[in-house]
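Hello Y.,

Per our agreement to keep a running log of every chain we model this quarter, I'm adding this entry. I've kept the format consistent with earlier entries: sequence first, then predicted structure.
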Amino acid sequence: MSDSTHPSLARRTFVGGGVGLVLAGCAGSAEKWEVKPVAVREEGLVELELKDYPELITPGGMVALRPATLSKPVLVQRLEGDGVRVLSLRCTHLGCTVRWDGEAQELRCPCHGSRFDDRGTPTKGPAKQGLALYDSQLEGSVLRFWVREQ
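Predicted structure for the entry above:
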């Protein structure tokens, strides 16, 4: 189901699945999380079985993935019900990789300090545009999203 029908995640719900995780290679107060590579099928389709990504089974869970066709990872977030959100982790300012800061409950760019909420909307510049949102849906135990290089 598309993100457009889902409200923002509550702080505790969003962080619940993400505690102990941060993008590899990022410094800061956030914990370390491993970016997992994933294959991309025809037309940019990525298909995930939830059993292979236990972080995404319950609302509030999240996982960083690197689709084979992208130069930057994406953040897959599990929302309430059958909702999912897939955001590019490429900062819209100069292209650095943003990371989730569990303490501050936001995505932060380590290069120039831009900040984004859990929906990818900028809350502090210099970035003026939001993070790219990829079409996604959850049907049963299969999560699908479609990617393209930004």
